[in-house]
Amino acid sequence: MVSGDAPAAAQAIARAVGIDAVHAGITPQGKAEVVRALQQQGRRVAFVGDGINDAPALAQAEVGIALAGGTDIAIEAADVTLAHGGLGSLVDALRVARASIATIRGNLFWAFGYNVLLIPVAAGLFSRWGLHLSPMLAGVAMGMSSLFVLGNSLRLRALRGWTSGVDGAGRDDAPSAALPPAAPTVSPPNRSPEMNETTIEVGGMSCQHCVAAVTKALQAVPGVQRADVDLAQARARVAGDAPAQALLDAVTQAGYEARLPA
C-alpha cells in the first residue's frame, strides 16, 4: 500500500485489510518512484488509485486502474476504470482479463491451424492425390471458422453473472454495510431537543476513506448521537453527551491526530 496519509493512519488501514508492506507519507512523485523501483526489479506493476495524487503512479505503471468515483485526472491517467467502484471488483477485473487472454489465444490457435491445413487444400495443392475443395465448400468452411471464433468469444458474456452481479449486489454494498449507520437526526420525544456539540480538529485526513474511518471511530463512542466530519476544514462536530477526552482517544486510536480547538 502506497499512501500519502500519516504513518499511523496508513498502518491502521493496512492492519484492517491485511496488507504487510506499507509506504506512508508518500508524495505523488514518490508514488511513481515506488512503482518505478518495482519495475527495475523486473516486475510488471498494476497500480490502483482514485485521486489526483495517484495520477503519476497510474501513468508509470504497466496497468493503471482507477475507480469510477475517482477524480477525472486519475481516470484519464489510468488504462482501466472499475465501473462499479470498490477494490472488490479488482478481483473480477483480473478474472475477466485472464479469461479474455485465454480466449484470444484459443481463437488465434484455431484460426491459424484451420487456415494452415485447409488453405493449401482449397488452393489445389493436393488435387493430384484427389484431395480438393470446391469453392462453395471452401466458402462454407471459412464461414464455420468465423462462427467458431465468434461463439468462443461470446462465452465471455457468461462472466457477467459473477462479476456485475457480485459487484452490484454484494461486494459494493459490503463496505457500506460495514460502516455504522449515521445516527438519526430527529430527536426522540423523551430527549431534550438540544444536544451538546463538541468540535475536534483532526489531522492526517486526506480522502473520503479517512473521513469514513474517523466517522466510524466517533460513532462507536458511547453517548455520541451524530458525528459530522469535514475533510476540507479538518474538523469533526460531534453531537451527544460523550466526554471530549473519549472522542479524542477514539480518533487517536483510529490512527489520526486529534485535539480540541484553541
UniProtKB/TrEMBL annotation:
It is an enzyme of class 3 (hydrolase). The chain crosses the membrane at residues 108-126, 132-150. GO terms for biological process: copper ion homeostasis. It holds the Pfam family Hydrolase. Its EC number is 3.6.3.4. Residues 196-259 form the HMA domain. Gene3D superfamilies: 3.30.70.100, HAD superfamily/HAD-like. InterPro entries: HAD-like_sf, HAD_sf, Heavy-metal-associated_CS, HMA_dom, HMA_dom_sf, P_typ_ATPase. Residues 181-191 have a biased composition (Pro residues). One of its GO terms (cellular component) is membrane. GO terms for molecular function: ATP binding; ATP hydrolysis activity; copper ion binding; P-type divalent copper transporter activity. Keywords: Hydrolase, Membrane, Metal-binding, Translocase, Transmembrane, Transmembrane helix. Residues 170-197 are annotated as: Disordered. The keyword DNA-binding does not apply. NCBIfam families: ATPase_P-type (TIGR01494). PANTHER family: ATP7, ISOFORM B, P-TYPE CU(+) TRANSPORTER. This is Copper-transporting P-type ATPase. It comes from mine drainage metagenome. The lineage of its organism: unclassified sequences, metagenomes, ecological metagenomes. The gene is actP_13.
